[in-house]
Amino acid sequence: MPEPKQERAQRTREEILRAAAEVFDERGYNGASMREIMSRAGVTLGAVYFHFPNKEALALAVMRAQPAGIVPALDSRGLQRLVDITFVWAHKLRTDPTLRAGVRLTSEQTGFGLDDATPYLDWARIMEECLIEGRAAGEVRADVDLRAVAEFVVSACTGLQAYSLLISGRADLPGRTRAMWRLLLPAIATGDGAGAVDVSEAREAVVNA
Fold this sequence. Notes:
Elements: H1 5-31, H2 34-41, H3 45-51, H4 55-64, H5 78-92, H6 97-108, H7 118-136, H8 146-168, H9 173-188, H10 191-196, H11 201-207
Helix pairs in contact: 1-2, 1-4, 1-6, 4-6, 5-7, 5-9, 7-8, 8-9
C-alpha cells in the first residue's frame, strides 16, 4: 500500500532535518552546504528546497527543534520534571547530533547573521511551566520569582555546556548539572520540595535509560 503523500512529505522533512543537524554539528553553519545535506539525507536538491528555502531556514529549524527530543519523553511533573529535563539535556548533548547542532547554532548564530532568541525563550517557557506546577504542588517557595528562575536555569545551562565543552568535551556535563541543582534547590524549594526532588546520579541514569 503506497505511503500517503502527506506522511511521505513529513518523513522527507524529518530526514532532511536529521541530515542537516549532522552536517551542522560536524562543520558548523559556514562549513555546511545544501548539497552535502541533500546527499546525507538521500533526497534531491529540489526536495531540500521544497521544505527549506535556504540554509538559514534549515538552521532555524534545527535550532528550534531542541525541546522536541527531550520534553515529550518525560512523565515526571513539577520541580522533578525541570531537573529531569536538564539531566536528559546533559546526556543527549554527548550522544545526539541534532541537539548538539541546535545548541551549537544557537550559540554561534550571530557569527552567521542570525539573531533568534526563540530557542532560549522556548526553554524558559517550558521550565517556567514546570516551576508553576511545582509551586501548585507545594514544592517551590511562594517568594520565588518563577520567570527569573526559569531564565536563570536556561542561562546557567548555556554556560555550563560551553564551559564543559572546553574543559572535557562535555564528558563532565552531567556532573556539573547535578552540582548546579545542589546549589540552586535550597534557594527555590520548600523543605518538603527539596526532600522530594531527586538530583542524584541514580536519577540521572533512570531518566536516560
